[in-house]
Amino acid sequence: MSFVKAARDRRDSRWDAHREQRRAELVAATIGAIREHGAGVGMDDVAAASGTSKTVVYRHFGDRTGLYTAVCDQVAAVLLDQVRRATDEALPTGPRAAVSAGIDAYLRLIESDPELYRFVVHRPLWVQPTGSRGEAPGETPDPVNDLVSVIGDEIAAVIAQRLRGSGVEPGDAARPWGHAIVGLVRGAADDWLLRPGGMTRDRLTTHLTDLAWSGLSGLASQLQEDDA
């Protein structure tokens, strides 16, 4: 490698780091704007919170969908870390406690940051072609579905561990069960956010854990009978 090329590579690398830092700052400013203005935040609000223009924001993210995806990535990283940490810490107590801890971690984010959750789930800046029902070639993957899929896999792993600990081989059952629990929690959480009805997070966690675990216990028993 020539000296000139090496120097250029170092400059490019330095600018890459600068751009990543600036993107992180803009994402943080966007999250601040969401908390201040609500889930329906507009690009003018984002630009004002960032202390720059919409043109500069678009330069870093391409379009509104790019910014939305970057915010989702940040929220996903935090939520996934919290769910994993909660389930790992609770697992020595038992798999039921681990599932409960994962549900509570999900609900905790909603309780502490409801507007940010609404922003992520309701996709106010998400742009897809009209009539799109999936990801056509060239389309941006849906970050919400990606996050839900990853969390479903995490819960499925806990379920599989519980079944094996009971002497039951889960086969292909743990995966759909794990994703079903995530769908259950997400549906109930959305309703809780819209109509809380005075129910505390702890109470909702208990209800959802009881429902999920009662179903899982019955299905596990059925697996044992099938294996007998």
Automatic annotation (TrEMBL):
Residue spans binding DNA: 42-61
Q: Which UniProt keywords apply?
A: DNA-binding
- Which Gene Ontology molecular-function terms are recorded? DNA-binding transcription factor activity; transcription cis-regulatory region binding
DNA-binding keyword on record: yes
Q: Name one Pfam family in it.
A: TetR_N
Entries under Gene3D superfamilies matching the protein: Tetracycline Repressor, domain 2
Residue ranges constituting the HTH tetR-type domain according to the UniProt record: 20-79
Q: Which domain of life is it from?
A: Bacteria
Q: What is this protein called?
A: TetR family transcriptional regulator
What organism does the record attribute this protein to?
A: Pseudonocardia endophytica
